[in-house]
Amino acid sequence: MFDFERDRDLLQVMGEATREESTCIAQRLLAVAELYTRHEGALADMEWCLVDYCAATAADVSAVQNISHARAVGQVQFACALAYRLPAVAKVFVRGTIDFRMVSTIINRTDNVDDELMPKLDEAIARHCEKWMKLSRPKLQDRVDQWVAKFDPAGVRVPPKVEQNRYFDVDAAAPGMAFASGHLRAADGAALDARLEALAATVCEHDPRSHNQRRADAAGALGRQEAALVCLCGRQDCTAAQGDAQHTAATAVIHVLAEQGTLEGSSDTPGYLRGLGILPAESVREVAKTARLKPLTIPTGAAPDPGYRPTARTREFLGWRDLTCRWPGCDKPVEKCDVDHTVPYPNGPTHPSNTKHYCRIHHLVKTFCGWNDRQLPDGTIVLTSPTGYTCTTEPHGAAMFPTLATPTGELDLPPTAHEPDAPAERLAMMPRRKQTRAQDRRDRINAERRERTELIAEQQRQHQAWLAANYKPPPF
């Protein structure tokens, strides 16, 4: 691979590659930030839309980089912080003399600093950060926190409270909180997961807890053999108190897809456990001993379903064919996705060759942000962005089980229109946010700054108390 006679030449290649890597990452992030700025200027007022400027930019980023929507959103926010809150650090990053680890630490540890103080802090850190490259992560955090404390003591980050980040597959504990972890068989884990999901859904929509917090509380309810969670909304018209049958947690079902040969023992092709992935053939046969077996029909040459909503048979096939949202890089399971008509109904029929799954965010992106898609009879999607960038995705289920990629029939469909812009009258129909991302960030920062201020005050009180108890004035 290398024709260098001297080892020092290899070391030179390493050093140059490291600097070029940092430069490329910096350029990519600054390009993301610039794209965000252009979306702000070109699109109508989307700040209060569920698909806001950040989500619209993330749709482009996830498609071109083939990453999930959540990672793309994080990258957009990271890029904007680098470009607009830390421009001096960004210049150092572009030179390649600091790496991504350094930049991510700086962005994270300066996130709570007041905007008016950031320019001076940015310049100070940019002058010194190249000297910190050899520091370990804890020491690097200490250096950044030291500079933050000099400019804005209340902006020093506060460690998160475990109690506020409750989730069932727990990995950390604190006094008063339990540690629950373990390695389970995939089928047992899926059954437990489904049970927790069912319990978490027994409260009304006004319950103040997050989804993860409801799952954590569902573990206690499950241990007490309770059929439902107690809703904490405090409303007299709470629908959970009515015992709605569709929200009871009486049963938990898991779904496994496998070939007939695997069930019969003539093949060791693994199956697929929805939500947890590949299931070895031996495990498939073990689960099948007590399971209800149901053949999956491939709707080849089938007539379109009547009406807008697909039949249960079509939904079942689409669910196993797609498994996840069909947007590039998105892994949202079909249970949390919408069935989207590629050519909008009624011009496009409700048929497997014209329907697939998009998660709610990507469904809205396609509908309101000028994206265009085309679907092939085997389920392949050709997606085109408003900028003209084109990418192709194949169904995840059909990629693992080729039988599911059997063409379901050619349709005589009109071409879908490509809309480069999102007119204001169309955006008015988009679901709205209760708070903008900027307001969410402001509230989190204000709460953490208050907590840091209280910690500083408590430290000062303790210091004064120690002085009062131990300080003895010198005799004269």
Task: Provide structural commentary.
α1 (7-42) packs antiparallel against α4 and α2 (53-65) crosses α3 (69-85). The protein has four domains: 7-155, no CATH class; 165-247, no CATH class; 258-288, no CATH class; 312-420, no CATH class. The termini are far apart. Strands 1-2-3 form a three-stranded antiparallel beta sheet. It is globular. By secondary structure, the chain is mainly alpha-helical. It is 45% helix and 6% strand. Residues 429-463 are annotated as: Disordered. Residues 17-322 form the DUF222 domain. This is DUF222 domain-containing protein. InterPro entries: DUF222 (IPR003870), HNH_nuc (IPR003615). Residues 437-455 have a biased composition (Basic and acidic residues).
Helix/strand layout:
Layout: H1 7-42, H2 53-65, H3 69-85, H4 87-95, H5 100-109, H6 118-128, H7 137-151, H8 186-200, H9 211-223, E1 256-257, H10 260-264, E2 271-273, E3 277-279, H11 281-288, H12 312-322, E4 337-341, E5 355-359, H13 360-368, E6 372-375, E7 381-384, E8 390-393, H14 396-400, H15 424-427, H16 437-470
Antiparallel strand pairs: 1-2, 2-3, 4-5, 6-7, 7-8
Helix pairs in contact: 1-2, 1-3, 1-4, 2-3, 4-6, 5-7, 6-7, 8-9
Organism: Mycolicibacterium rhodesiae (strain NBB3)
Biased composition (Basic and acidic residues): 437-455
Pfam families: DUF222
